[in-house]
Amino acid sequence: MSQIENELMADLAAAEAKAWESLAKYKFMMFGYWAAIWVHQNRVGRFKRPNPWQSLVRQARMQIAAAAKSPLAAVGAGEDVSPPSAPTPQDTPAIHEVSAAL
Description:
- The chain is mainly alpha-helical.
- It has a domain at 1-70.
- It is 61% helix and 0% strand.
């Protein structure tokens, strides 16, 4: 391998490590940044390495497919999915009542 290829391979490894680290810290924008750098380095270097996030993509696609079949399937069986209760006009005090209380 040439020196340029070695440097690209090192950059590829660094980008992958930084992407995983960002994902582990819930820094999704930085994950996307480093994943894109990895894809770019992989193409420029013509390494043809398989995408290290392929299993994550498959999992996301499965979640989308499950949600499309049943809107409640993505939430889970025993979880409460009712919307939060909104105050009704009877429960909400009138403006003059709030002002008088102050």
